Amino acid sequence: MRRFLSALWAKLSNRPLALCDSGDVDGITSAALFLRKYPNGVVVLAAPSEVNRSWWIKRLSWTFVADLPCPGKVLIRADHHRTNKPCAKVEFYDPEAPCSALMAMKALDLENDPIANSLVKVAIETDTANITSEEAEKLDLAVRFASYPEKIFIVRNLAVNGLQALGNYRIGRLIERGYRAKKLMLEIADKIPIRDIINIYSPIDLGISYRQLTIELQHRGAKMVNILLRLNRRTFRYYCGADKDSPYDCTQVATKLGGGGHKYASGAQYKSPFFNPGKGVEAFVNTLKAYLSVNKLEVLELAKDSVRIITY
């Protein structure tokens, strides 16, 4: 309701309206670039799955959309996902671009803006899973665990102050929270045996970034990491990461589960049948079996203090 009212207010007050991905630094940076270009604009953040199923997102006309599937009525869109089909009047779309924020900077004519360039630099680091700067790590940790109002706060501060916003006390608290979650993620990663393909099921949310866990396991030697997180009784979230030197294609699994993304990083969110929540895990297992051409699949089930192996 908060997002719908923000969008409605933008329409009633004739303000530029943007829709950007809520899930990562790339989407948050794209949103900040929009507000840098249009300080009186209004930003709405959403996940790709929400764009596909939300009636009001599809009904509204958007000034700018970035890092998301095209909802339909869009003036300008900036994106780099192969699975997101162009539909805007003006497309800044390049599937070879390292991040959507780079395309957003071009779309918004901010290429000569030093603050915009510094923001895009960290977006490239985070979206290519090659974080080398302290600024990129801090912003990534702040965004991963932020609530919706906290993400909007980050967007607005980045738009005005660029990376100096990381020195803001409130954002600093978010970064500290992110470091605590990263510590827990590393402890869990230590319990997971490294193999070429690692399949994981987490029946409860352990308070970590599961995308961060896929990246960590890849850094330790895994060629493909598939993680299924149960969000509630019926809703499941799939994360996939694949090494760029491997033959694996995450989109081949994610699209079968209703999602999308990149060859080496994709995801999906889906629901199991109302009266049979166990079908959510079954869909994950069967999709992987079909993709990997195997009859049996080994899945590691995560708990906070242990990992157990289940063969399907």
TrEMBL record:
Which superkingdom, per the lineage? Archaea
Which InterPro entries does the UniProt entry name for this protein? DHH_sf, Oligoribo/pAp-PDE_c-di-AMP_PDE
PANTHER family for the chain: BIFUNCTIONAL OLIGORIBONUCLEASE AND PAP PHOSPHATASE NRNA
This protein's name: Phosphoesterase DHHA1
Gene source species: Vulcanisaeta distributa (strain DSM 14429 / JCM 11212 / NBRC 100878 / IC-017)
